[in-house]
Amino acid sequence: MRRRSRLDLRTTAWFFVLLALLLSLGGLIARTAAQAAQRRPAWAVILLLLASAAVIAGHRGRRRWSARRALRRATEALEAAAETAVDALHEPAMAAAPVGVAEPPVATTTPTATPTAPGAAYAEETLLLDAAVVPQVMDYALLDPDEFERAIAELCVRDGCTDVEVVGGAGDLGADVLAVAPSGHRLVVQCKRYGEGNRVGSQDLQRFGGTCFTVHEADIAVLVTTADFTAPALEYAEQCGIVCMDAEALTAWHLGTGPRPWETPYEG
User: Fold this and answer.
1) What is the CATH class of 131-255?
2) Among the four residues 1, 83, 219, 225, which has the most C-beta atoms within 10 Å?
3) pTM of the full structure
């Protein structure tokens, strides 16, 4: 009662836990001593005499032993041990979440709009085409005809063409993609998405050649396909000045390892 103790729920709980451990330890020692005394009475008597002599010698010249004082000291020691245990358990939690320390702000980014090329169109309407949507790896043969035309238009946008329009459909008169090349020349592209085993023949080239220059006023006429060309088709294209891009040339254009159709005429 002379010292104000830290009395809280956790400290009190630890106090009684430690007290119970001490009582259990004392009981275990007493039980062991009793069993030893039953088995070896002579040794028990000798140990008792030695312990008594040690206690008498230890207290000789000191003030009289007081059971009350010993009990108070034991209680204070238990209280100190309980408070130490509570503090040890409380410190990691305080270190993990210090009071008054704000968490660092989380960096945020604001999405920005990607500029697109003006004048692009799809399905006879002007659309903005974003060159960033061109995939790094593309199997054009897996696309349907409309997707194939749009993919070719996106390649044109990616490589610097302007006024790109996807005009393929009924009544397109042989033109699927219209654009202005970086050099300023008018580009007219017809797209032939053929499956494996099919080849673009001379009749396809003749129909395209009859409209690409006269109707669409092309400076550069290109026929691009996912297949290959027949020999007569290549011969007609060379005579008329039509650039032919087969599947291999298209892949090279897509990957940037081959010429673009408006840069160097590709001969099959």
Assistant:
1) alpha beta
2) 225
3) 0.49
